[in-house]
Amino acid sequence: MRSGDRIGGDIKRAELDLVAAKSAAVKPAGLTVPQYAALLALSEHPGAPAATLARLCLTTPQTMTTILQNLVALGLVERTSNQWQRNVLENRLTEAGQARFREADKAAVVVEQKLADAFTDEERAQLRALLQRCSDVLSEK
């Protein structure tokens, strides 16, 4: 198979372009894309433990732990012990974290909307279905 016929490169290029656009969008808020993703997940799932956030953000638990440590150091996330499982830390946005998330999210939504606007409703549904098929094929055992 010739390199020009390989679909993996097309998918990777689109992913890199999306990450670059989102990175530029959230940078003025002082965030990286992984940090923004964690804040987004926490805004939707307050109290989620690191393992849950890792699954939601499509990263490893080890990477999420590092992201959370950095967000705690920035004062954007607080971690507290779960009252029933002391070894599980719950994660929540601080007031500063909520404000920083809202700032970054406004810019990230512009990127997402620009991408969505490039397709009709039908094309977006088709694109999602095709990408899901890619994931299904690649995750087959």
Automatic annotation (TrEMBL):
Question: Gene3D superfamilies attached here?
Answer: Winged helix-like DNA-binding domain superfamily/Winged helix DNA-binding domain
In terms of SUPFAM superfamilies, this protein maps to: Winged helix' DNA-binding domain
Q: Which domain of life is it from?
A: Bacteria
Tell me where in this chain the HTH marR-type domain is found: 1-136
Instruction: Give a single Pfam family match.
Output: MarR_2
| InterPro entries from the UniProt entry | HTH_MarR-typ, MarR/SlyA-like, WH-like_DNA-bd_sf, WH_DNA-bd_sf
What is this protein's name?
Answer: MarR family transcriptional regulator
Highest classification ranks of the organism: Bacteria, Bacillati, Actinomycetota, Actinomycetes, Pseudonocardiales
